[in-house]
Amino acid sequence: MNLEDKLASLLGEQGWIGAADSAAWRRDWLNKFGELPLGVARPKSIAEVSAVLKLCAAVEVPVVPQGGNTSLAGAAVLGSKGGVILSLSRMDKIGEVDKAGGTITVGAGVVLANLHEQLDGSGLMFPLHIGAEGSAQIGGLIGTNAGGSHAFRYGMMQDLVLGLEVVLPDGTVWDGMRRVQKDNSGYQLRKLFCGAEGTLGVVTRAVLKLLPAPIAETTCLLAVPDMAAAIEVAAQCRAKAGEFLSALEFFSDVGLDMALLNIPDLSFPLQQRSSFYILVEAGAGSPQVPIEAIFFEILEDCFSIGLVVDGAIAMSKAQRNAFWRIREEQPEGQRLEGEQLKHDLSVPPQLLGDFLERASSECQSILKGVRINPFGHLGDGNVHYNLSPPIGQKGFFGLEKTFALRLGRLANEMGGSYAAEHGLGRAKVALADQLRDPVERELMARLKSAFDEKGNLNPGVIVEIPRRRLQ
C-alpha cells in the first residue's frame, strides 16, 4: 500500500483529501506561495496526527501544518510539490472555562472568533484580536506567535499560552498541558513552539490564559498633526491611564483616503482631516473606575497644547465598532487600490517618527512617487509599512527585494525587527539570511536539527537545513 492509500485508510473519507480536490488548502492567503500536495490530511484526534507524522517520516514525505491559512508570509503551504498538508481544522473542541484559574483548554483548530463568542457572558476574555480572527485558528496563532492590536498590554501569543500538547516530527507526543503560570521545571519548551511556524512540532491542544472582561470601556479616535504628536499623546495616555490602556493604534491620511475610496459604507466621523490618526482604547473590570473622566482630562490637555486637532469618544458599541472598522480596513483599502508591497516592521515606539521619516526617504530614493501607507500598533512600535506604486504606474519594476532589504536593515539599525508579527514563512527566509546575525541563524539551525533531524516538518520555513536521507 502506498502512502496515499495508508493515509486514506487511517483518516477516512472526510479526513483525507486527494491532490485533485486540494485547491482550498493549496495556496496561501496572498496567493503567492503553495505547490500541489500529495493530499490534505485532516485528523480529528492526537492519535491520528501522530500516525500521520509517523507514516510521512518513514518515507520522507514533507509535512506542512496548516491552521486557518491566514499567514501573510506563506508559512502554511508547501514550498515544493508532493508533500502533505496537515490541516488541524477538525480539532476544534473548546473546553470549559476555569474561572478560578482563568484558563481554558482548546483544540488547535478552534477559530479565534469562535473562542471569543464562547467566552461572551463568562466575565472572562481571551485578549488577542487580529483582523483575520474569523478565519485564524489557535494552532496557527501559536505557530506565528500572533500579536495584534492589544499586544502592548496583554502580550503576544507566547504570553497567553500556559500549556501545550505537541506532536513531534517523528510522531512522538509531548504533553505539556500544565494549567499554571509558574512552572520553572527546566527549559520553557512551550515558548519554543510559539513562533516556530510548525517547523519543530504540530500543536494539537493548548491551555490559554484568560483575563477579566472589561465592564467599563472607552474608545477614542483622534486626529494629530504628525507622528511626533502621536507619540506624545501616547505618552500622556500611558502616564495618566497606564494600567487601563488596552490599545494604541495609528494610521495615516494616505491609508484613510484609500479606505474611504475603496470600502463601501465606510465613513469618517471627525470634522477635520490630518496627517495621522490614533485609536485609543481603555477598559476596567469595575464600573467604579472613571474611565471616561480620565480620558476627557487627557484629551482636554492634549487639545490645549495642540497635540490633537480633532477627536471623538465612542458613545455606543456601534460607534466603537465604527472607529475600529476604519483602522481594520486599512489593509483591505490598499489591496483594492491595486498591487502593493507589505512590510511588517518594528522599532522602539519612541523612534516611530524618526523611522517613518527615514523610511520615506529610503523609499523615494528607490522609486520616486511610491505611495506609502504606514499603519499599525503605536503602543508597541509595530508598523505595517505598505507601499503602492506611483499614481499612473503598475508594479514596482523589480524593486521588491530592494525595498524589503533597505527597510528591514533600517529597522534593525534602530533596534527593531524586520519581521515584527507576521513571522518569516516562505516570504522572508532569504531576507532573514541577509539581515540576521550569523550566530542567531546557527542557533536556530541547531534547534531545528535537534527537533527535526531529517528536516521533514515544514522544510524551507524560518531556517533551511539540509534534508537527511534515510539510510
In short:
With 471 residues, the chain is of the alpha+beta class. The protein has 17 helices and 18 strands.
Q: What does the model show?
A:
- With 471 residues, the protein is an alpha+beta fold.
- It is built from 17 helices and 18 strands.
- The strands form four sheets. Strands 15-12-14-13-17-18-16 form a seven-stranded antiparallel beta sheet, with helices on both faces. Strands 5-6-10-8-9 form a five-stranded antiparallel beta sheet. A four-stranded mixed beta sheet has the order 1-2-4-3, with helices on one face.
- DSSP helix count? 17
Number of separate strands: 18
Q: What is the overall shape? A: globular
Termini distance? 21 Å
Write down the Rg: 23 Å
Helix amount: 25-40%
Unreliable parts:
none
Identify the strand order in the major beta sheet.
15-12-14-13-17-18-16
Biggest β-sheet, characterized?
A: 7 strands, antiparallel
Proportion of residues in extended strands: 15-25%
Structural class: alpha+beta
Mean pLDDT: 94
Index terms:
7-stranded antiparallel β-sheet, 5-stranded antiparallel β-sheet
Helix and strand arrangement:
Blueprint: H1 3-11, E1 16-18, H2 23-26, E2 39-41, H3 46-58, E3 63-66, E4 84-87, E5 94-98, E6 103-107, H4 112-119, E7 124-125, H5 138-143, H6 151-154, H7 157-160, E8 161-167, E9 173-176, H8 189-193, E10 202-209, E11 211-212, E12 216-224, H9 227-241, E13 245-252, H10 253-262, E14 276-284, H11 291-304, E15 310-313, H12 317-328, H13 330-337, E16 344-346, H14 352-366, E17 371-377, E18 382-388, H15 400-413, H16 429-435, H17 438-451
Parallel strand pairs: 2-4, 3-4
Antiparallel strand pairs: 1-2, 5-6, 6-10, 7-11, 8-9, 8-10, 12-14, 12-15, 13-14, 13-17, 16-18, 17-18
Helix pairs in contact: 1-3, 9-11, 10-13, 14-15
